[in-house]
Amino acid sequence: MVSENPEARDAAAVPRQAGAAPAGREAAQPAGTADPIRVLIVDDHALFRRGLEMVLQGEDDIEVIGEGGDGHEAVEMAGDLLPDVVLMDIRMPRRSGIEACTAIKDAAPSAKIVMLTISDEEEDLFEAIKAGASGYLLKEISIDEVPQAVRAVHGGQSLISPSMASKLITEFAALAKRSEERTQQVPAPRLTDREMEVLRLVARGLGNREIARELFISENTVKNHVRNILEKLQLHSRMEAVVYAVREKLLEIT
Fold first, then answer.
1. Which of 200, 212, 183, 178 is nearest to 246 (CA)?
2. Which of 38, 128, 203, 251 is most exposed, with the fewest beta carbons within 10 Å of its own?
3. How confident is the model at residue 181 (pLDDT cuts 50, 70, 90)?
4. What is the pTM of this model?
């Protein structure tokens, strides 16, 4: 691999576009070789971004086309660069990875998004899946495994770290059991019109802040509505509320 010009690297600002491949990269590829997988890296830790870039740029079939430091930059860069794969953290300033994921799926519908994070919380996993993520990998993964993860997601596979997959299975098993028990009980409780509005936006993968902006209400009011929805449905998480509402035909996800 041809080394990147150090002077050009020092002059780059964050966020930056990686730009064209280094001189000689195209010539080194045999005629008829498929275009490289275009990757956008988004993480608020610059050293982590650089480490990922170094590993990925060492692969002939992968090209890092840009990197950003927060969710706001992720959405802007995805719309401009139209990456094939986005590697993105969840906990970031200005806009979370979950919120950015939803927006990126609108700005660049063909992009496959992999959440690469330290968060092993079930709620983050469920919210990422609802927002359209194709993968959820913990940062405990060996950095040398990332190129293969990029190829797998680009090829249409869904990836979840084993420890998170077990949590997902456990959660859905518990949800299925509660739903089965509930079918023999009282009819589904009635939600208010405002609660239904909130539930529909939750189903679209929006976070509390985005729902507040959409409905012109405060974030605390959104939290109260979500809490009331969970209490009425006797559920424990936003993910359960969406699955239950679809199952009971309280709403449809189109």
1. 200
2. 251
3. low
4. 0.58
Predicted pLDDT of residue 203: 76
pLDDT at residue 40 in the model = 97
Contact 18/67 with Cβ under 8 angstroms?
yes
**Separation of alpha carbons 90 and 76, rounded Å:** 17
| pLDDT tens digits, 91-103 | 898 888 999 999 9
What is 230-246 written as a DSSP string?
HHHHT-SSHHHHHHHHH
Across 4-13, 93-102, 221-230, least confident range: 4-13
Q: What letter does residue 40 receive in the DSSP assignment?
A: E
What is the distance between the alpha carbons of residues 149 and 146, in angstroms, rounded to a whole number? 5
Nearest to 95 by CA among 120, 149, 131: 131
Q: Map 78-139 to HEC letters.
A: HHHHCCCEEEECCCCCCCCHHHHHHHHHHHCCCCEEEEEECCCCHHHHHHHHHHCCCEEEEC
> Could you tell me the residue ranges of all domains in the chain?
6-26+33-164, 180-247
CA-based nearest residue to 146, from 110, 125, 167, 115: 115
CATH of segment(s) 6-26+33-164? 3.40.50.2300
Q: Is the pLDDT of residue 193 over 80?
A: yes
CATH 1.10.10.10 fits 180-247, yes or no: yes
pLDDT, position 224:
94
